Structure formats: C-alpha cells, structure tokens
Sequence to fold (642 residues):
Amino acid sequence: MYCIIKIVLSIILYIISSCVIAQPNDLICNATPITTNGVCVPSTNTGATYNPADPNPFCWLTWPNYDVWFSFVANNDSMEISTDYGGYTLTDTEMAVYSSSDNTCTGTLTEIGCSEDAGATLGNTNPPINNYYSSILVFNGSLVPGNTYFIRIDGNGGTGTFCISAGPIVHVLPTQTPNELIGSTCELATIVHPNNSPCAFDNGNVALGGTAQWTNTVGTDYCGCDNETNQHFSWATFTANSNSTTITNIESVADLDFTVFSGTCSSLTCISCTSRDDGQSFNIPTTIGVQYFVLVTPQSGNTFNIGTDLCITSSANCSPPLNDNCANAIPITAGTIYTTTGYCATADDALCSGSTENNIWYSWTVPGTWTGDANFSTFDQNCVGGVFSPGTQVSIYGAGQICATTSTCVTFANISNDNDYAISWTPIPGATYLINFDGNGGEVCTFSFTIAVEITLPIELLSFEGNCTNNNSVLRWSTASETNNDYFNIERAGNGLNYKIIGTLKGAGNSNQVLNYKWTDDVPLAGNNYYRLKQTDYDGRFEYFEPIAVKAPCDDTPYQLNLLNNPAEDKLVFQLTTADEENINIVVYDVCGKSVIIKQALVSDGNNLYTLNLNSIEKGIYFLKVETKVGFSQKKFVKQYK
Fold:
C-alpha cells in the first residue's frame, strides 16, 4: 500500500512540476491547447510580458498585465472554464475568453466572457478552501461545439503558478458576458432610490457613473436638448415613490443634459429634457410606482468624455427592509434565485470580515438528504457607486448560530468590488445557517444570489475508438464510473462539423466498475467519418466527448490498438492490427498536451508488435496516439521507474 501511495504522490508532483511552462505562452498564437475533460492543467505566468496590442478585457482591474494564453475546442455548447484550484502560488487570477472569426489565432477576436474574483474552490483541496479571488466562467448554451476558443489568464498584477481547466459545468453561476457595465445601456441603467436624505451613495439616491468608463456613444437622437447621437452618456433608472421628484447635477466639473423617459427600454416615451449646471436641480411630476429612465449627456452637443453624476430625491422617507435585523432573517431554499437590495438597511451584528453598515439577513435550513458542498453564488450586482463599485460582502454563520453571536463563521466573501463571486462549504444536513449581506463601505446594491449543490460529473470516459471492419464502422468505448447515466447518442459528420444523431445506446445508470460499450455503423459515409458521443443523464444534463475518425470503405482486417504493459518502465509495448502495409505516426503527449515523443514506423497487414523506448521522458501520466490512414486511436499510460 505504501508503494502505491508513493507512486500516486510522485505522479501528482510530477504533473504539477512538469507542466509549469518554462517560456510562457505569452502570445495568442503560442496558446497552449487544453483538453475538455474538466481536469486542470498546472501552468504559470512567471516571465510573461505586457503586450499593449492585446485588447483590454472589460472586467480586468490591473494594468499592465502579465497574461498567458490557452485554447480549447468546445465539445458542448455549455461549458465551464476555471482556475479555481488550491495549492498554487497565484491565488488572484483574471480571465477573459474569446471566439475567433476563423477559429485561428489570427482571426478577428470577440470577447465572450470575463471573470475576476468568482472562485469557490469546491473540494479541490483537502480541506477545501474558499479562493474567491480565482476565476470561473460558465457558458450556458452559447458555445459552438467544434469551434476553437482562446483563454487569456492574468495574475492581477502578480505572477506565479495556477491550474486551469475546461470541461462540463460544475458551478451554478450566471452566464458571464462582456461589456455589461452598469449605466452603459438603458437595460443596465444604474438603479437609484429616491428619498429625502442628503445626496450620498450610501443613502442610495445617487448614480456615480462616468462616461470615461466606456467609449461608445448614444447612437440615437432622442427628444433631448441637443442631438445626442455622437455624445457619451450614462443611464440611470428609478421607481417614483412620490408625486414630485427632484433630479440634481452633482458632477463637480461639468454641465449636463437630463432626458427623462417613461415606458420601457424597448419603447421609451420622452417626458422632459432639462439642462443643468453643477449643483443645479429641477423637478418633474411623477406617478408613484412608475419606473422612469434618465439619459445623462453633456450640454450643448459636446462629445467629450465627462462624469455623469446625479442625485434623485423625493419627499418619501426611507423604510428599512423586513429582514433588516438577524431575528427577522428570511428563509430561503436551494436552487432558487433571489433578487434583493440592501437599500435603507441598518447595521446590526459583525461580519466575518469587514465593517457593517447596511446589512440584511437570510437563513437556510439544509435538507436532510443533502450531500456534498453547497455553492453560494452572488451575481448581477447593480450598485449606485457606478462602474467597478465596492459591491456587496457576505458572511455565512454555522449550524446553531444565535443572532448577535459571530463565533461560528463558516465562510465569507469580502472582495471590494461588484463582480460576481461564489463561495462554498460543506453543510450539515438538517442544520440551519445564517446569511448576512452588507454593502461594502455602505454601498447600496440590487443583486441576485442562489445556493446550489455541486454537480457530479455523470461519467468518467476511459477510451473512445473506432475501426473499419467489413466496410462497417465499429465504435467502442469504456467508462471507469457512471452516475445517473441515462443514454449515449452516437453522432456522425462527414466534414467534422455538422453532426447528426445516427444511434442511441442505453447507459448503465450508476456504476463504479469499468464498463465496455460497442456500436456499429453499418452504412458509413464514403471517406472519413467523424463520430462523437453525447452522454445524457436522467435529469437532462449532457456532455460531448472528443470526436474520432474512421475511414470507409475498408478491408476485412480490423484496425485496433492494445497496450500490453501499463504501467510501463523503460519501454512501452503495444499491439497494432491494421488492414494494409503502411506508414504510421506514433506520438506521445504529456498531460499538458505537449508532444514528447514522435516516431514513424512501417507496419504490415495483420498484427504488429511494437516496442517504444521511454528513456527520454520522466515518470508520469502520458497519452499514446497512433495514426493510420483509416483513423487514429489514443490510449493513456503511466511511465514509472523500476
């Protein structure tokens, strides 16, 4: 047993040490390919340099950056990209993901996701840690299977080692898309709360925007004081709580136009347009309960970038929310998304980290059947402090917690910005936990949150291969384990792009032993046939696996690869069965996807025995790929010392 543990530990240490890139993938065209099996690949940004030609990701906070590049081929339209792994020296990462117009590094890039401080670290260390400074991006139905995407990782001003993965969705987080800057559109207007308090962001009645945060222009000439088409701008919105509302220009250096609308963002009705200098106000009649929108632009048709700060007041008092104190915590259930605000809340009890200004309370009783970690996600923060505002902070108190006692903090997030974040812990079934939200520094935000359980991956695929026999494509695959596996769809494409379902095979449901599957395509296409598996579990979740190629028609002799010694020491022996005499390519890859052995060999028809010398590589986990004229097969093996 000791020897087995020693071997496993040696392999783990090898993976961590051998995959640290000596010369970082500093440019996109040197992007490191990663697999889409959800297993993280250790890497580093040490030695990376700042490239001013690279675009600025919308959510990154630190410049210049020390970024490195990765790429992956999507095997599902819904996937997760993550650096949320403990045990590495770089604990604060920033991530951006790009599509390419031609699936290459030289194509036109479009930023499709950005993440900064969204981590949860679900059991990747023992014990698990809450590394909310790491990055997670969840794409729900927005990726194109078969397309290549590029990942950009930065250390938020620092360098060190980290681990990155691409694979099935594990965290329940909102889809994150670029350019969702609060105030940048009518739909993303800053939410303001009119009241009779002095103008201050912690009173919730201001919008501290600033058109300098984005470079786009209005693009439309509304019914304003001048033509807004080419002007910079910001949007704010409020729901009237009195019959008269006052809007004040609190921008200290600029004169502004305020165009006020009723209706909806898709159907705006102009009700006033007023120009006001710094410190000046104007009143508009309003209807209680009606939502209004305010477009703020420079006066006199000016097109330069300026601040767009405003204050909205009314005669109404501020009324604290029902869950303003711990004793009135609102019960919640897992799997439900809640939208709330800390507006008008007052301080009670201490946070696990940070000062308390305007906190609100929730409670969660864990179902008795609960298993695994609880993922607590906060997202869609709309804060009156404007773009990149302080945002919210949250503390979660343990089982048996009594209000006004903070001795049982189990986890918290205090990240000082309004980005999405997620934290996790292992709850006790049947226990009740208290959740304490507070505006960081008194910030007033409207936001959403949810609790979800960690998703267990449905199957662990060991191999997927195919060969041509009697002019049929014979597909074989093996699973190491299965959880709630309902069925497999077998999909085929002649060009490797447009896949169609050609067969279905029932899964085993639940299994913890190796299972083998076989399916035959008796009417393959002439030429190359590309096959892929789509696995679906009982609740409808699914994932795709890497495609393979089989060429038809073929001779009667099957094409098959078998490893004869695994683990291997100084030599790897394998048997290859082919239909013809031909030249084959033999490639060995490490876990980082880097080729470490490349060979060519001439084989005859029938069974061929081949011995591959492994003395040039260190101990660790590798993949053997053998390419013939009718397709390829890949096997995983372990190199160990004698």
